[in-house]
Structure formats: C-alpha cells, structure tokens
Design goal:
By secondary structure, the protein is mainly beta. The protein has 8 helices and 20 strands. The chain is globular and about 90 Å long.
Length: 519
C-alpha cells in the first residue's frame, strides 16, 4: 500500500506538471480569441460582455482529461496567473476611435447651414493722380490797364495742385450692368497766401475735383455727380488742366459707344444755382446741356466731331422792395463740327461753330443772338521730331450799332490759354482774329522745344478806332524726366500796338517754371 502512495503521489505530481505544462503552452492559442473579439467592434456592446467570459477557456484546456476532475479544478486557479487573457480589453479600449469617425458621418448627413455670400468687393482700387508746383512771374499788365485776374495779376507767386483719383472696381448688379464710383480729392491754391500766422495759418483749398457714380453696361455708361469734360482740342469744352484748380461740371452724362471707338455723349449740367440769389426754386438757374459725338472711327483714321450745345438761363422776377425789374429767361444753341487728320507728313485741323437763340440781359428782355467762329491750321513734319505749322482763327464780336442783338461769340468753357497766347493778354475768344505760326522740335525723348507766334487783332474797332492789338511770342522747353515726371519752362512776351493802347507801349512779360508728376 505504501509503495502505491509514492506512485500515486508521483502520478498526481505528473498530472499536475502536465496541467502546468498545458497551462504554460496555453498562451499561443490566446491570440486566436483576439480575432474573435475584433468583430464585436462594430456592435460596441459585445466587447464588454466578452471580457467577463474570458476565464471560460479554462474548461477547454486539454488537462481536463485527468481522471480526477475534482483535483483538476485547481487548474483554473493555476491558470489564474495567466490572466493575460483579460489583457484583451485593450482591443475593447481601441474600439472607441472608430466611434469618433462615425460622428462626422452623421454630421455629413445634415450639413450646417451655409453663411450668406459676402457682398461683391469694390477692390482693388485704381489710383491715379497729379502733383505739381509752379512759379509764375508777370510784369507789365498794370501799365496796359489790363484788369487783374487769376491769370493777369502782377508780380510773382507759387501755385500748386495735388490731386488723387480713386476709382472702385466695377460691381456686377445683374443684367449685364455694373456700378462703380470715382472720387478725386484735390488741394490747390497759392503758396503762403491762405492765412496768418505764416506756416501755421495757411489752409489749402481742399475739395473734390471729381466725385461721381457710374452705371455701365454693354455700349453705355451713365455718370452722375461731378465730372470733368474735355472734348476735341478743348476749343468749346475743356478741363482747363493747366490751371491749378481746373474745371469740372455738376450733373449727369451718358455715353453710348461702339466697338469701333465712336461715341455719343449726352449731358445736362447745372452751371449756376439761382435760388442763392432769388430764394425761389428754378429762378435764375443756368444750365449747360449738350450732345457731343465722335464719329471719326466710323470713317477711318480721322477725328470727326459734331456737337449741339445749349446754354439756358431761367428768368428772374423783379422785386419791388429791391426796386428791380424782371429779367427774361434765355437759351441759345451752338452747332459745331471739328475735323482733324494726319496724312503722311502733313496734318490739318478745322473747327467751326454757329450760335443762335437769345441771351439774357440783367433786368431786361433777352437779346436775339447770332454769332459764329472758325479756327484751323495746317502743319508739315519734314523730318522726325520737327513740325512747322500755320493757322488762324476768327470769332464774331458784338456790334455797338445793334444794341438789341448779340453778335458776339460766346466761347463757352474752353481751354483758351493755348489758342490766344500764353500770356493771356488778349482775353477770350470773341471779337477776335489771329494769325499764328508754331515750330516744335523733339530733340530727344527727354527734350522738347516749342516756339509760337500770334498776331492778335479784333474784328470790331475799339474806342480809338483800332483793331490790331499786338504780337505775342511764346517759348516752351519741356523736359520729360520719366515715370510721369517732367520739368517745364515757359517765357512769353507781348508787344502791344501803342495806337490800340492810347500811346502805351509797355511790354508784357510772363515767365513760369513747373515741376510735375502724373501717375
């Protein structure tokens, strides 16, 4: 009996060792349950349930074949240290990452409401401008009895201008149309004359040269506000660009144009607001209306303009308290045409106009108007850079013999400075006759020389019975520096006819030097 106990004990020990060995070899199969745990990832609930069932593999162990099951039961206790199996929960903890992936899927089904589209941008802006400062010196105007004005004042002075043009990007408003805006603030005046104390009290004349809104479409553009107008050679309508303040108009203008380049402008502008003086609506208002068409592109390499313009003045009722009488309203029309062309080395220019209607007279009935003007010239360019030209002009004057009629040409709003002598002694284009010559030579891209001569006369005699007023010679030197910058010098001398000026023969001198930059 005792001999069997060691054998039994040995059998039990062998059984135990075999069980332990089986348990030790159990880890290799352990990965197999891991793939089985993977499918439950889709349904998130199964993984937690699988965790507590992890000890169940113990009955499946091969040692379960031992004859004494009661004694084999301790095997699970031995297997308990092998609880690496519960380490399988990490796969259960790895399951949550897919859950965040499911969230975007749900959100994708119901996308958030899109914000309203941003309004169209008016940027980028188109920026332009001009800056200049000019020294002017005049002498001899007072001696000839010429009434002082901005361009005939005696002495010397500095004038300046700083202008900035800001145009917005066109914004589409549908129907093939767009809107944009243009503003051009400007500071202009005379240096050191705006106030005291010096350098501190000087306040420049700051305002807006242009400020208008534009509605544009295919073949048309409508401008409303304040805008510049400059047509042809600026003989009837010019922007007066040489002047530090320059000229612009208030009102509306529409342009119709074609692909060839022809255009027709129709405009209506307010020149004078009469209510400031009369305190009544429309009374005394003055309007400048017109149609100006550039038809040259329809024909070829030719400038051909035709225009119909009107200057209309509303009536002003008399005032018994102020002891004034009625002023009759008036309106006269200007019919005109211009042609300009270059053919090989030759060029020519011709412009003519006729005015009919009535003109206002202070506190009186309007006068019938009939006036005319013609201006032209020819030129030849025999060699590169050189041009020689001859020209002349005439404009009717008001006759003293017909007090009830107005025969004087009204020059309207030109840049007259360049037609009748740069010294501005002769005055405006009315009762005028002039013969002129000019020579210009472009010595290089950086040097231009000009000489102009004017023989200035009147069509109607003055009180002394004279018509010929004098001769003027203008010289110009222009030095384009580049990049829009330029230096310019000018000298003009007027030689008066002393018989016209009652024995006075004092010469008039005008000099200016300017530095400017345009961009």
């Amino acid at each position: 009996m005792n001999t069997h106990r060691p054998i039994t004990a040995l059998g039990i020990l062998a059984t135990t060792l075999l069980a332990a060995s089986a348990q030790a070899q159990t880890p290799p199969p352990a990965p197999a349950p891991a793939p089985e745990a993977a499918p439950p990832v889709a349904p998130a609930a199964p993984p937690p349930a699988a965790a507590p069932e992890a000890p169940a593999p113990a009955p499946e162990q091969p040692p379960a074949e031992a004859p004494a099951p009661a004694e084999v039961e301790p095997a699970p206790e031995v297997a308990a240290p092998a609880e690496p199996a519960p380490a399988e929960p990490p796969p259960a903890e790895l399951a949550p990452p897919p859950e965040p992936e499911a969230v975007p899927v749900a959100l994708a089904e119901e996308p958030p409401e899109e914000p309203p589209p941003a309004p169209p941008s008016v940027t980028p802006l188109t920026i332009t401008g001009s800056v200049f400062s000019r020294y002017e010196a005049r002498e001899g105007y007072e001696e000839l009895g010429i009434a002082p004005s901005r361009v005939t004042r005696e002495g010397d002075t500095f004038v300046y201008r700083a202008r900035l043009g800001i145009a917005t990007n066109p914004v589409d408003v549908g129907g093939g149309k767009s809107v944009s805006a243009m503003v051009a603030p400007q500071a202009a005046g005379t240096h050191s004359t705006q106030g005291t104390p010096e350098t501190i009290g000087d306040v420049p004349n700051v305002g807006f040269y242009e400020a208008y809104a534009r509605l544009a479409g295919s073949g048309f553009a409508l401008d409303v506000g304040r805008f510049r107008m400059d047509y042809g050679d600026a003989l009837v309508i010019g922007d007066l660009g040489w002047n530090e303040t320059a000229r612009a108009f208030q009102g509306g203008r529409v342009r119709f144009s074609g692909e060839s380049g022809f255009y027709t402008d129709i405009f209506a502008t307010l020149i004078r607001e009469g209510s400031a003086a009369t305190q009544a609506m429309f009374d005394g208002d003055q309007y400048f209306l017109g149609v100006y068409a550039g038809l040259g592109p329809l024909i070829g390499a030719l400038d051909l303009d035709v225009y119909l313009l009107s200057l209309t003045t509303a009536s002003i009722p008399g005032d018994a308290m102020a002891m004034t009488t009625d002023q009759e309203g008036s309106s006269f029309f200007t019919f005109g045409a211009r042609v300009k062309q270059t053919i090989d080395m030759f060029d020519y220019r011709l412009e003519a106009g006729l005015q009919v209607g009535t003109t206002s007279v202070p506190q009186a009935d309007a006068r019938d108007k009939l006036a005319w003007q013609v201006d032209g010239g020819i030129g030849i360019s025999p060699v590169k850079g050189l041009r020689i030209g001859l020209g002349g002009l005439a404009a009717s004057g008001d006759k003293a013999s017909s007090a009830d009629k107005d025969e004087g040409w009204n020059q309207l709003y030109p840049t007259a400075h360049k037609f009748l002598g740069l010294a501005d002694v002769f005055g405006g284009r009315t009762n005028a006759a002039s013969g002129n010559f000019d020579i210009s030579f472009k010595a290089s891209d950086a040097l231009v020389l000009k000489v102009q001569g004017h023989a200035l006369s009147r069509l109607e005699e003055n009180a002394a019975g004279e018509k010929y007023q004098g001769t003027e010679i203008d010289t110009h030197i222009i030095h384009p520096i580049g990049g829009g910058a330029a230096l310019r010098g000018m000298y003009a001398v007027f030689l008066p006819n002393k018989d016209y000026y009652a024995g006075l023969d004092d010469k008039v001198h005008f000099f200016e030097a300017q530095f400017g930059y345009n961009f």
